[in-house]
Structure formats: structure tokens, C-alpha cells
Amino acid sequence: MADDAMLKFVARGQQYPAKRSAELRAEDFREIADRYAVPDAEAQAGRCSQCGVPYCSVHCPLHNHIPDWLRLTAEGRLREAYELSNSTSTMPEICGRICPQDRLCEGNCVIEFSGHGAVTIGSVEKFITDKAWEEGWVEPVRVGPARGQSVGVIGAGPAGLSAAEYLREMGYDVHVYDRHDRAGGLLTYGIPGFKLEKEVVMRRVARLEEAGIVFHTSFEVGREATLDTLRARHDTLLIATGVYKARAIKAPGVGAAGIVEALDYLTASNRKSFGDAVPEFDNGGLDAAGKHVVVVGGGDTAMDCVRTAIRQGAASVKCLYRRDRANMPGSQREVANAEEEGVEFVWLSAPDAFDGGDKVTGVRASKMRLGAPDASGRRAPEVDPGGGFQLQADLVIKALGFEAEDLPKLFGAEGLGVTRWGTLRTDGKTMMTSLDGVFAAGDIVRGASLVVWAIRDGRDVAAHMHAWMKARAGASVPAQAA
């Protein structure tokens, strides 16, 4: 029976869940595609070739058991498929929605290489976990025997939440501190609802609260408490703040009103979706309605901004990116979605100056060309002489990526070691910072990266923190708790 369910990639074509029309989906912030019906999920999972060396798993940062849960899905064993998917990931339905599968699992699918179209791994992962929530298969966190030790986690994004869950399962008291008024970090405030509806994040947070994890929201380390204060309060700390400092544009006129940071813009939009009062949005400053919008950047954050502007009713939306389509860092699927929704991409272009004085009215830009490869192996953009042009703009959104904030200064912890990029310096084996008992994980260590890597780091650092606390507790730890 099992063999009959699989290896259908020759006779059965690749089929993703149907997307709503671009006109309809541009009217709201709902996810753009529904999940599979059960027969469709089983049929698409059955396309898997069950290859001996599963490159999909190899290229997944979590090394999810992808062929195995695809087989279980194809056989109709959906609860088992969910349980296997959940065994390596604390947020499988979130990864299924926002991972760039075209660059990870699906991009390395063997049948993709053979020309038959990759197995739709992300869509199946989303399906089986949403089905699990619907059917009540998602069980409460299994809290281990109390250890009498407490952990403080600074940052309620994917790395912090993942570590908190594993540490609570081990029996530690876990307190999570976050500067925002809701947990979730960029999952909550940085990613628009059309990619990740907020209820999907909030139900994960609620599950952790039900497990006894204590969330201290609107808590800014350095203001409410110094790092040393938290070190005295807990047996160990994890710093998982992510990176929030926006990269700057150096160009005349960049300080004019109407030129805003991507995260400020996205946070305001997401807060409105929650029903919050957002003065900066309500006064028009962070609302694209009726405006000519130019987004500068080519990553996934830029794609989130252009697609949000469309939904807010912008008069026009252009994306200015200094490289070409083939060399942009964002997901190609997101580019395609944006184009369908009416975004215009201005490739090989970079801003020179912003017009308008006090209030931006336009962007002066240069055409670029790709020169020799830089240190990363990507061809470096250089100005194409004589290729200048102007764009009308009432709102310019800077989406050039994020860097680390000055955490030693913010936290009042000058002994906290950092790299030359400002990220936290950690021991490669233990993930501990320069401060004894203070660990770090996620983007604040590796730089701006993917949610799935943050989840992986949270899983890894929890194991290192557990080993360190066990060693500290020594013989006083009950044998059954070890």
C-alpha cells in the first residue's frame, strides 16, 4: 500500500493550493491561498520520490523528516504525519507559510532537478499542522519535573519562543521578556497577515502561556531592568532579541518627512490589523492610501512593504533595487505575487537623492549595471553613466535590511562581547556569550537571517543551557530530573 501511494511525480503534476485572484487578495490582509483539501494534500505528498539521500531534509536548517511525513500524508495517516513534523520543529505551520522553500527544501527536491516540479513541501507542512490544530491533535507542552531553576529569555521572537518551549519541557521555570506589547517579535509585527495571519502566531504563544511560561511584555531591558538585574533574578539568561537597527541610506534629502523605515511601516500596519490605535498611521504618515510609493530594497522585507502598500490603496507602488531579478535576495515567489498584485519593479536602480525639501515628492535615481563579483560571489552593482531618472514619490520606504543594536550600551552590560558587525560574540560550541551563564541565539548572533534558522538556534541553545545548568546544579539535581 505504501509503495502504491508514492512515486507519482511522473503521472501527477505539481499543484499548489489555489491562490485567490490578485484583485481580490489585494483588498484584504488574509493569506492569499487556502490550504489543501485532504485528497489534494495526499495526492501532492504522493509525488515524493522517497530518494535515498533526501536533499530536502539536508537543506532544511531543522533537518525535518520530510520524506517520512510526506509518505504518512500520502497514506492518509495525517495525525502521525503531524506528530513527526512537530518532533523537529516548534512552529511547523509557521515555517510552512513563510520559509523560502524555493531556496531550501523544494529548491533542492530531486524531482525538481528532473524537470517534474518539486513536491509542494511547504504547503503540505502547513496543511498537516493546521489540520492538527483543527482536530485537537496539538497537545499541551509536556512540562518536565520541576528543577527549581529559572531561565530568563530576552526576546519573544522565534528563537526565544523555541528555546522557551524546550526549556519548559525540561522542567525549568521560564520567563520571557520582550519590548513589545505582544509576543512573537517579527512574526507578530514584522510579517504581514497575507503571509502569516496573526491568529497562527497568537495560538502558539497561548500554548506556551498555558504551559506556565511567564511573558513580561512591554519590558525593555536597560529601562525596566539591567542585564545584571536579570542575571541575579535567574539561573541563566538567553539573549534572543533579533536585529532591529535599520540600515541607512546615505543620500541628500533622506531626512525629509515621508521617508520611513520598513519596520515602522509594517508594525503600524500589523497593529491596525489587531485593532490598535496607531496615531502615526491614522495621521497618514505610515499609511500608503492614495500615495505614490517607492520601496528601496530587494529582500523579503521589501516584498512585504510593496504588497502592504497595494492593500492600503496606494496610487502606485514601485520597488527600486540595485541588482537584477536573478540576483535579488528575496523569494522569487514573493516577487511574482507582488507583480500579480500590481507592483512595478525597477531593476538595476539605486537612489541618488530625494526631492521635496521638508516633505518628499520624488526620488532621483541612477541606473546600475553588474560588475565583477564581490567578496560574497555576487556581482557588485556599479553606476551606469548617463542612466539617471526620476520617480514621483509621496512615501518612500527604506527596506535595506537590519543590523544589530548596541546591546552592551542598551542593556547596561559593557562586558557583553560583540563582533565587528555588532552581533553578539558566542562560543562556537556552547553558544555562551562572554558573560558566564548568558547565552545568545538567533539573528543577534548570526545577523539578519531566516525564521527557520532562528527556530533551529533556539532548539540548539536550549540543549546547551540545559547542560550548563545541570553541571551547575551538580549532585543536588534529583536523578529523575536529569
From TrEMBL:
Work out whether the entry's keyword set contains Iron: yes
Q: Pfam families under this entry?
A: Fer4_20, Pyr_redox_2
Q: Per UniProt, which keywords does this protein have?
A: 4Fe-4S, Iron, Iron-sulfur, Metal-binding, Oxidoreductase
All copies of the FAD/NAD(P)-binding domain together span 151-458
- Give the signal peptide as a residue range, or say none if absent: none
* Statement: the UniProt record of this protein carries the keyword Methyltransferase: no
Identify the domain of life: Bacteria
Cite the Gene3D superfamilies for this sequence.
Alpha-helical ferredoxin, FAD/NAD(P)-binding domain
A Gene Ontology molecular function term for this protein is: metal ion binding
Q: Where is the Dihydroprymidine dehydrogenase domain?
A: 25-136
Question: Entry's NCBIfam families?
Answer: gltD_gamma_fam (TIGR01318)
Q: What is this protein called?
A: NAD(P)-dependent oxidoreductase
Query: Organism, per UniProt?
Result: Sphingomonas naasensis
